TrEMBL record:
Sodium/calcium exchanger membrane region domain sequence ranges: 6-133, 154-240
Bilayer-spanning residue ranges: 41-64, 76-96, 116-133, 145-168, 188-211, 218-240
Main location: membrane
Localization, UniProt: Endomembrane system
Membrane association type: Multi-pass membrane protein
Source organism per UniProt: Parasponia andersonii (Sponia andersonii)
Transmembrane in keyword set: yes
Protein name: Sodium/calcium exchanger membrane region
Gene Ontology biological process terms from the UniProt entry: intracellular calcium ion homeostasis
């Protein structure tokens, strides 16, 4: 099961490379709203659309069969998502609590608290990676011969990620023009369309693994991707900004 978890983490990492690059390009162009909406949409897409669709399709395809998953892995992801929620809420609550004063010191303190929370999340995510690679595999699962080698599959993932990343700058530059021409708000494009289109291959992979009753990989892709964005990509953007 540890192999499945690591595979799901690797899949989520390559899939989220697009979000990271889009966020960096958008920050460089001062489009903070696009960054916030796209990252929020990616988290919601993974937790609601991808996970829900995968569990639904996997349950139908494997009726009468027991679907097993690593409970420890699910607990860790859930705990990290809860930690991310608390860390994201803390600066906002602090700022609203001091909104009556409306002075510059409150804004500066909120900014410092936000960056401190981001550093805490980054440290927690590093600890999560250590947990991923060091946990013992108590239930070894024998699989058939691999369809492709590790380095071949890894090279394909990296290659496709690079190709998609090259298009990210174009997406950031044209999202406002697309909003005007299509008559849709930038928030709708960033929250709904951009995460779905950008992670289409990752989403399809999670559903395919659910059909094959490999629930650990499905959870690793869906929950792992949401955890990675909430605990790594968002704090990284806060620190960079």
């Amino acid at each position: 099961m540890v192999i499945f978890a690591v595979g799901g983490l690797l899949n989520a990492t390559c899939g989220n490379a697009t979000e990271i690059i889009i966020a960096i390009f958008a920050l460089g162009q001062g489009k903070i709203e696009v960054v916030k909406y796209s990252l929020l949409g990616s988290i919601l897409s993974n937790l609601l659309l991808v996970l829900g669709t995968s569990l639904f399709c996997g349950g139908i395809a494997n009726l009468g069969r027991e679907q097993k998953y690593d409970r420890r892995q699910a607990d860790v992801n859930s705990s990290l998502l809860l930690l991310a929620l608390l860390c994201h809420l803390l600066p906002m609550l602090f700022r609203y609590a001091g909104a009556s004063a409306a002075d510059l010191s409150t804004v500066d303190s909120s900014l410092h608290l936000s960056r401190a929370s981001s550093i805490v999340m980054l440290i927690a995510y590093v600890a999560y990676l250590v947990f991923q690679y060091r946990k013992e595999d108590d239930n070894a699962v024998s699989e058939g011969a691999a369809v492709t080698g590790f380095w071949s599959g890894f090279a394909r993932l990296i290659g496709m990620t690079v190709v998609i990343a090259l298009l990210s700058e174009y997406v950031v530059q044209t999202i406002e023009d697309a909003s005007d021409s299509w008559g849709l708000s930038v928030s709708f494009l960033s929250i709904i369309l951009l995460p779905i289109v950008g992670n289409a291959a990752e989403h399809a992979g999670a559903i395919i693994f659910a059909f094959k009753n490999k629930l650990d990989i499905t959870l690793g892709v869906a929950l792992g991707s949401a955890t990675q964005i909430a605990m790594f990509v968002v704090p990284l953007c806060v620190v960079i900004a």
